[in-house]
Amino acid sequence: MAQDSVGLSSDYQFWMQKVSTWDQASTVETQQDTCLHLPRFQEFLRQMYEALKEMDSNTVIERFPTIGQLLAKTCRNPFILAYDESQKILIWCLCCLINKEPQNSGDSKLNSWTRVWPV
C-alpha cells in the first residue's frame, strides 16, 4: 500500500500539471493532447477514487491539498466530460469529498470544494 501511495502521489503531481495546462489553453494541440492522454487519465481517476474512498477528510487534505482544483479543472474540460466513463469516475471522486453532516473542519473544507460554482 505504501508503494501505491507513493506512485499515486507522483501521478497526482503529473496529472495536476497536465490538467492545469489543458485548462489554460484551447489550442488544437492541447485538445489532441487531452484526447491522447484520456485513457491514462481515466485510470488515474479510478486509482484516485479507490484511494479517496478509504481516506478521512484530514488525510485527503494532507495528501492532496489541491484535489478541489484538480477535480474542478477536470469538470470544466469538455474533452474529458465527453466520455461517460470519465464523468462517472469524476462523480465518484466528488462524492468521496461530500459529507452530509460535517464532523470537523476537514469535512467542511472538502464540502466547500464540491459546491457548484457559477459558470
From TrEMBL:
GO terms for cellular component: Fanconi anaemia nuclear complex. GO terms for biological process: cellular response to oxidative stress; interstrand cross-link repair; nucleotide-excision repair. Coiled coil: none annotated. InterPro entries: FANCC (IPR000686). It holds the Pfam family Fanconi_C. This is FA complementation group C. It comes from Equus asinus (Donkey). The lineage of its organism: Eukaryota, Metazoa, Chordata, Craniata, Vertebrata. The gene is FANCC.
